[in-house]
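Run log // design_07
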């Protein structure tokens, strides 16, 4: 029998949330009675705090874990780092349970949930990070190298989400120095997440994602501060400031719950719809502006050809007083998607979503036509400027033109005039933008 204590730690105070129990492969969770009295809803849809008895997650969407706790575990890259570290300690990764994985992370989790007693000792040392060295080792690990993994990579790369190699780091305000550390940082530092290119990524993948972040910001999306970190000649890594940590107080943690975890959906499976995302956003945040923001991200993902828009790439953040909001946008970049389709359907359409599909999503979410038209227009204007955003970030001309062609094709379908050529679609978009700019004060 394995028992794990779950704590909710904001950096200002800590509460025992409850306990996870593994009974012969069946995982149960029971809320602590004192926490139940607080009335804090960490996962209101599938694990409401009103449940007093031990509860088992029988669907086994996440190998028996509730989505609330599965959100603490990493995805592909973080799992590789974790399993390599365990193997070096003589532990067969195939023998460990989901609770063992949570205890391996302990307090080194994203978000505000921590797991005790941690199997790895807490290490508050701040080690300097060499991005070039970490990037090189990450590449060798992806290539199958069996070399010993650096402790810095275990500390910095064992908890991030997503398949691409990445690390969490403390970054000085002038971007001139990086350290490890998941808790307190020195004055003048903040928490960042930095990505490295995977084996099948283009050389300028980091620059492309940086250009997308700037384009998304221009389109009106809520985007965290971003930066390009140089790692070698001609290569750069994309970084974003973490929204589960407070930039003004590095020890302050925020509870974050993914859309996937909230609704208990395996993000690797297609089938959910943007209608579902906007419905959950309204139910959870009770804020119309958050619903409009979710709609804006959908339109941007369509027109910018980001089809890796799965349910784990949207998340919600809870404030200390229990209020929910949509997190800033993340993992926004050029992507072909599974089978060339959007992972989240647009009113039932994944391959060729049109403006009519988008407007149907808006209508079902009670977004007025005038408001949806304004959002679409602003996103169209930003995406039409893709070449300028890309050139400013050093994206290669080949990548600029390839992505431009895909965007033009998507736009032609979006306005439901697929007979137009790619060049006509792009030129029309840019001409409209130019007219709008000339008429603006």
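design_07 sequence
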């Amino acid at each position: 029998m394995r028992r794990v204590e779950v704590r909710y730690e904001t950096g200002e105070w800590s509460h025992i949330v409850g306990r996870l129990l593994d009974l012969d492969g069946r995982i149960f969770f029971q809320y602590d009675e004192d926490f139940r009295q607080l009335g804090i809803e960490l996962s209101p849809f599938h694990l409401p705090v009103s449940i007093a008895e031990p509860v088992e997650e029988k669907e086994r969407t996440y190998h028996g874990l509730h989505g609330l706790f599965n959100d603490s575990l990493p995805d592909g890259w973080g799992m590789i780092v974790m399993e390599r570290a365990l193997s070096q300690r003589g532990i067969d990764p195939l023998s460990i349970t989901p609770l063992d994985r949570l205890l391996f992370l302990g307090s080194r989790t994203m978000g505000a949930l921590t797991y005790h007693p941690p199997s790895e000792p807490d290490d508050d040392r701040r080690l300097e990070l060499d991005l070039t060295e970490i990037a090189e080792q990450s590449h060798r690990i992806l290539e199958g190298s069996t070399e010993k993994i650096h402790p810095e990579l275990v500390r910095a790369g064992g908890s991030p989400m997503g398949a691409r190699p990445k690390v969490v780091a403390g970054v000085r305000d002038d971007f001139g120095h990086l350290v490890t550390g998941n808790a307190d940082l020195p004055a003048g530092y903040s928490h960042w997440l930095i990505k490295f290119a995977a084996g099948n990524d283009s050389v300028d993948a980091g620059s492309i994602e940086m250009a997308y972040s700037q384009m998304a910001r221009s389109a009106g999306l809520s985007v965290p501060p971003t930066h390009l970190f140089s790692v070698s000649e001609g290569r750069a890594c994309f970084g974003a400031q973490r929204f589960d940590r407070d930039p003004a107080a590095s020890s302050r943690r925020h509870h974050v719950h993914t859309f996937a975890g909230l609704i208990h959906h395996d993000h690797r499976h297609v089938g959910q719809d943007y209608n579902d995302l906007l419905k959950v956003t309204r139910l959870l945040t009770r804020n119309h502006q958050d619903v409009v923001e979710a709609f804006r991200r959908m339109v941007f993902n369509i027109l910018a050809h980001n089809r890796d828009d799965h349910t784990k790439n949207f998340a919600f953040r809870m404030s200390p007083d229990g209020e929910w909001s949509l997190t800033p946008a993340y993992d926004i970049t050029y992507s072909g998607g599974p089978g060339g389709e959007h992972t989240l359907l647009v009113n039932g359409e994944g391959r060729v979503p049109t403006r009519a599909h988008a407007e149907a999503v808006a209508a079902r979410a009670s977004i007025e036509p005038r408001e949806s038209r304004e959002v679409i227009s602003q996103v169209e204007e930003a995406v039409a400027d893709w070449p300028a955003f890309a050139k400013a970030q050093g994206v290669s001309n080949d990548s600029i033109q390839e992505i431009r062609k895909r965007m033009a094709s998507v736009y032609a379908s979006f306005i439901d005039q697929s007979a137009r050529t790619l060049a006509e679609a792009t030129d029309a978009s840019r001409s409209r933008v130019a007219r709008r700019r000339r008429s603006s004060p």
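Residues 362 and 368 are 7 Å apart (CA to CA).
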